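User: Please predict the structure of the protein below. I'd like the answer in structure-token form so I can feed it into my own downstream comparison script.

Assistant: Understood. Taking the following sequence of 81 residues as input:
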Amino acid sequence: MHQLKNSSILVIGGTGFIGTNLVKKLLRLGSKVTCLSLKRKQNKLTHKNLRYVFCDYANFNILKKKINKSFEYVVNLGGYI
């Protein structure tokens, strides 16, 4: 797990139940996390290494504009409910 320190990680669905717990763990490990979510969450986490992006990830053109960097890891926990 030490290889995740300072790693750039995109978590799709990072505001859901599993995603939130994963993000907390990744931040404790020292990762730089970007959460991609469809809807805004009222009580979102705050951390210096955490960034939120809200958009429909099925729309590639909007996604490309909002996320303009590369990631070392991508975790897809997203889904339409």
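That's the full token string. The beta strands are 8-12, 32-37, 50-54, 73-76.
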